[in-house]
Structure of dTDP-glucose 4,6-dehydratase:
Amino acid sequence: MDEHKGRLRASELEDSGDVGVNPTHNITMGEIIATRFNRRDLLRGSLAVAAISATVGHRALAANEQPVKKASNPISFDFKEIEAGVDHTHHVAEGYDTQVLLRWGDPIFADAPEFDPMKQTAEAQARQFGYNTDFIGFVPLNGSADHGLLVANHEYTNEELMFPGVGVQDSKDANFSKMTKELVDIEIAAHGGAVVEIRRVNGQWQVVKDSKYNRRITAATPMEITGPAAGHDRMKTSADATGRKVNGMINNCAGGVTPWGTWLSCEENFNGYFWGKLGDDHAEAKNYKRYGLGTPAYAWGKYYDRFDLTKEPNEANRFGWVVEIDPFDPNFVPRKRTALGRTKHEGAAGITNSDGRYVVYLGDDERFDYVYKFVTAGKVDTQNRAANLGLLDEGTLYVAKYNPDGTGTWLPMVHGQGPLTEANGFKSQAEVLIETRRAADLLGATKMDRPEDIEANPQTNRVYVMLTNNTRRKEDQVDAANPRANNAFGHIVEMMPEGGNHAATVFTWEVLVKCGDPSVAAVGATFSSDTTKNGWFGMPDNCAIDSQGRLWISTDGNNAKATGRADGLWALETEGERRGTSKHFFRVPVGGELCGPFFTPNDESLFLAVQHPGEVDEGTSSFENPATRWPDFKDNLPTRPSVLVITKQGGGKIA
Ligand code: FEO
Ligand code: CA
Ligand code: CA
Ligand code: CA
């Protein structure tokens, strides 16, 4: 965290380490062994039985004797790997085309103004595609893979790259002196998300500008708060005496698309938008400290009282939720589903369980924070779409505990159970949810290395957890699920729900791969030896599973100066003998990070999003002098975050 005068850079929000938890615990012999050896190798090696039975119980052995590779239908990726590196533009594997589908500022309505970077207004921005798309989903229309609704989050804004004559304000200027109310209003309009009808005609994707579905959602759009925390006193403000209505969603990172065709959009680093600190004796002081409030990265609190905690102390409780949006109804009031907890939500990808319940996996992206899942009480109704719209309001939230022996437990977060009682400050389920992190601390969940996207593979029921990095983990904080101190490159944990049942409260797990450059022994990366020098990656962030059950990973934070490579997309084998082999498919222009990825149901189109192209660490890149003018490369246009679509030349699956 590069803090300056109590201000954070917006781009550093994801890296800010404001945890308030006790990171100490006792290391068991099992953890030490699992740390020092790759557990899979250990279990399969000759010393496995002796070493393991000396340190862990029979339950772990039994769990690990189950065939891990039950899908065992290894389909290798056959694309020709690209070279890792960094320059001003993007690169995709040979034989594939990249189309720029939607750029920041592109009009998404027939009557919307064209993008004019020198004459930006909030009104124009609210009719144009927003900034920094992270999650992208594709919801087919009439079952088509060539015609549907693109849903896209607009996570955050970079003032120095967006606005002429402004330069870096967050971190450089305690008072954000160049951020006028007009610019803040443009930022508010550039946040949120978009629904855009798109169609593939003669192989090319097009935006349908006169679609009845197209919609911009901003950080000011009226929304409803639903579920157990709705209406609670701590959710009420001077503008909303009901505690059930809120304007806007902020910092929406990743998300998911439900089987009933709604879009789940996740509020992540909401803390960066609030000014003001509450006194230590304030009722919300502990709560807000745990979420890192008090170091704003935006000027919004300067002009809007609701973004100043000293004036509106409950407003921040109304952010940090998973928002459900029906893209088929442009008048749908987005709903903040409080039953899924309040964290710095990365994503909300789910899977329909064998019993019909819907299970959503949720990462809380902070150093030493947790992995969660939500299991609905009701079942997905495949006949009546509308019947599913209340499904995410009732169910059980769980937080994960990873045991050193390769087993794990989902701990229910239910008021009145265990430590979640009034004695610990939780008077109701509403309060357990408002303070999800503190509740999870008390339950003894496992402190992870920044949980990002989590996806379940419907073909194997195995679940993949992207743990992007945690350079603050010390040697004495290492555990089996977070096996490296100073974890600069992150790792991926694979979880196996008991009997393939995603509602089960026990699971087994193992580290699929420790990321980083395998040729540098000190890094301790564990890609397979078939992985080339281009094939390794660090900082896994978003992920997707294609229809053949294969894992694709996009990265955030491959500092080009340190690693000589830009962020991008890698394909990682999880099956058979090639398990742990990674191949490089796509890379972004300098300064960018790669988001998405999302496949059409036939795997023939792959949507990707490039966030903050041209954002370089030195903060020297600006509107006037960006590190790249991608994707337009015109002197009169700034660099623009954009959504891309990849297709195979001549047609066919991306593979
Ligand atoms: Fe917005 Fe955790 O990445
Ligand atoms: Ca992310
Ligand atoms: Ca994903
Ligand atoms: Ca990211």
